[in-house]
Amino acid sequence: MAEDMASRYQVMEELGSGSFGVVYKAIDTATGEIVAVKHIDLESSEDDIQEIQQEISVLATCASAYVTQYKASFLKGHKLWIVMEFLGGGSCLDLLKPGVFNEAHVAIVCRELLQGLEYLHAEGKIHRDVKAANVLLSHTGKVKLADFGVAAQLVNIKSQRNTFVGTPFWMAPEVIQQAGYDFKADIWSLGITAIEMINGEPPHASTHPMKVLFLIPKQPAPRLEGNEYSSTFKDFIAQCLTKDADRRPSAKELLRHKFIRNAGKPEALQELIHRKQDWDAGRGVSKDVKYYAESLNTITKPPSPEEEDDDDWVFDTVKAPSMWVPKGTDWTTLDEDENETDPAQLMADMHISQPPLPPRHQPNSTVRRTPVAERSPSTRRANTKRRSSGIKQPLGLDLSYGNSPSTVRQFRRVSDKAPSETPKVPPGFDENSSPKVASGEPTSKEAQLGHRAYSRAVGLSCQEVLSTTGDGEKREAISRLAEAWSDLEMVDPEGLYHIIRIMNEKLQADPRLNTMIPTSPQPDSPGRPRLVLAQNNPHLKSHRRRQSSVAEPNPPSPLSNMPGQNPAGMEHTKQLSDVLYQRWAEGLRNRWGI
Amino acid sequence: MAFFFNRGRSRQPADVVRSTKELLLRLQESPNTPKAEEDLAKQLSQMKVIVQGTQEVNTSPDQVHALIQASVQDDLLYDLSRSIHLLPFEARKDTQTIFSHILRFKPASYLDPKEPPKDPPVISYLVHHRPEILIELCRGYMQSQSAMPCGVILREALKFDVVAAVVLYDQSKEGEPAVRLSDLKPNLPQKGDGVFWNFFDWIDKSNFEVSADAFTTFREILTRHKNLVTAYLATNFELFFGRFNNILIQSDSYVTKRQSIKLLGEILLDRANYNVMMAYVESGENLKLCMKLLRDDRKMVQYEGFHVFKVFVANPNKSVAVQRILINNRDRLLRFLPKFLEDRTDDDQFTDEKSFLVRQIELLPKEPVDRSRPAQSQSGVNTAAVA
């Protein structure tokens, strides 16, 4: 059935990459209608598929002229196809490339957005990520809200949310403070978006996104300044950017604002679309059209004879019909010299869709390192319990996709393979970025260790402590510290390494402090982590947990009620495997968050 | 003048309920009557305002209470629950909102902190007097129009274990009265044709949206109320895991397959389900199924499969059947595992677990050992190796 659905759409050129997936233009052959189809490769996503379902269910329950219309979704192999209405005008962020909007255009976009927000809010939905990049235009100038990747559905119209999501520059103070927020958060983001459209960038754009997170609650709300703007426009922005969410007007109220009431027709926005087309043409941008090609790994194929794996399991009973039965192999014999083809490996080799390795940053570059396109699938959920570790980029807000700062779902850990990558800044901000200078390639061993210490331990620890700190002032202090570490890592990784090394020595030297530091594990115990753990290493937590669960005086041993589990002469084996097993089960439970 | 101001709210909840009921019956007789649909949508939207208020107007608990009483009196919820697929788009969402609110509604007398907490009155009404409503809501998965709203309502109701119990144990056929909470017979094995068992087919056979929603509800039923589910799985072990293995784990749908392997892991590793886990990992057939997952051609399926496979290997009291399979495949496994998903280099836990498994497999005895019998003097091979 799914295959039928897929064949109904004739997929054409690529439109761009969205929050998680590639978007193509396509024709619905049943109706002749042009649609946008988002392909999400579920194989490359470790996220709970439920999160994607959440996005779909929010979209599927929207029916408004001001919200991109959802049409269908279905599976093809391990790709999820989401069919949406096609909007040919591009996003407001695209339209900003030739230059900023004028006040009249901003007024129109704001009015249309307010109507979209009024609809969503009445439906008990919060968009939570309003910004120019998420505002799409049809070729006739109709304005629609898009990308519901982090939208929330409230069960109760009056209830509040606490989750920390959005994109830093556009986030309302109450969202950052995590003190509970509601629909009004979208209104703030709308105000920031208005500034973005008139100025080309949101306030604080040149500041590190991490820093922005404490500037927004602390500083007075941004205002639009300058004589070239009308007072009604300034007032509109001031209304949207009321720091006290209770006093901030609702979408409905703002629709009555003079700035909005005087706004022109959406058709006037076609000017912006034409301007962008001319600009593209003027730059001689030959549109680098990428056409859809079905990647090999979406085609479920029967095993071909060459690939048949002689190393398949030996089960002494009749095989289930779903198994492939290789011909000409005697199942009862175990031949050690069999062909060692590993199907997993074969499949891996065929993943042509895997992105090539991103280019490493050039030495001696004077601006901040450029973001790479690579984005690990694991970055969307920060405190995912599944992986106890992994190289996680510290305090990184993932700003890597597309050309706009992308949305934070909780805190993202940007797990790049290169431990020396630093928090990223979108290319659009490069010229404005803070005058930090990236050091060249680390040369000395100490420098490398310094980078590693930062990416493995220091940054993560700051982030972990930050995530468990509620108090605003403390959070700010921690953020500053984190920022300072990050600066140090960039400028002088060697120094960073020495600080940590000396700190460690001093800690060890102090008789009271050194009890905090774990002794290195016995080299021959197989299950123990082999890492020497820094005190603030997140591994330590799980390590301690394991140890304490083992050392628990009376563990509620799940095994004690097993019948006949004490074969004579095997007691110590049993104990050992019990310990291992328990440690094991503990790990499993962590993984599933039970 | 007062008449003027009250226009919007003048109609009493009972009136709204009565008109809604009449319109519903009319629509059931002759579906696709635009006029009736439109009128019904208006009534439901009024009802929604009563239970939810608007951003400007707060709800009145008295009005909500009156609405609930009238709905019970006119048996409106039953008709509503079985007609969601007939309603227009906005009306389906309104119905979902109405249900969600009244399921949670507690009158002031329920909120007395001195009293032990009680289930909301509508929940009690559903499980004691009108369980058919719950069954109809589940059957909402039979139509794609009603699947998502019904799913949302169901999950709201399933927060209460009494509701989960009715859904798990009901075996009524269409048109028959459903089981009352007081009539449940937990010790009686299920026949496998009750409403809960339909979830397997709804998940397996529906289109993506319906299937995914049905799975979410299915998961909720199986993971939320531990004691209830543990007892249920113990009584219906073969039936349940037979279907789980055959229909879900071996589903053609990538999402169903992957999600159900993960759910299997969650169920097995839940402390409350310890006995269920031990029974599951005792079976050689289950192990075979799991080992096939390791050789699936999709990495995330392999990965999820690994997390169930490891339970078999880590179990210190492996059954003879399990030992035999592992021993027969020892060399293959020892060749296979080191290369298994080896590009997961940044996943230390996975790497640790993999080497733990390798070690456990190396330590397997030459021949299966039956540990459920009094031990014969077993060779010291693995003892020495462990030490």
Characteristic terms for this protein:
heterodimer, A: alpha+beta, 17 helices, 12 strands, B: 387 residues, mainly alpha, Leucine-rich Repeat Variant, 2 domains, 0% strand, disordered N terminus, disordered C terminus
Structure write-up:
Chain B: InterPro entries: ARM-like (IPR011989), ARM-type_fold (IPR016024), Mo25 (IPR013878). Chain B: GO terms for molecular function: protein serine/threonine kinase activator activity. Chain B: Belongs to the Mo25 family. Chain B: Residues 374-387 have a biased composition (Polar residues). Chain B: It comes from Penicillium cinerascens. The complex is a heterodimer of chains A (594) and B (387). The longest helix of chain A has 23 residues, at 445-467. The model of chain A is unreliable at 296-308, 317-406, 408-442 and 520-577 (pLDDT under 50). Chain A is globular. Chain A contains 17 helices and 12 strands. In chain A, the strands form 4 sheets. Chain A has a 5-stranded antiparallel sheet with strand order 1-2-3-5-4. In chain A, strand 2 and strand 3 form a beta hairpin. Chain A is of the alpha+beta class and 594 residues long. Chain B is mainly alpha-helical. Chain B has 2 domains: 1-31 and 43-224, Leucine-rich Repeat Variant (Alpha Horseshoe), CATH 1.25.10.10; 225-387, Alpha Horseshoe (Leucine-rich Repeat Variant), CATH 1.25.10.10. Chain B contains 22 helices and no strands. The radius of gyration of chain B is 26 Å and the shape is elongated. Mean pLDDT of chain B is 89; it is low at 1-8 and 375-387. The interface between A and B is large, with 89 and 85 residues.
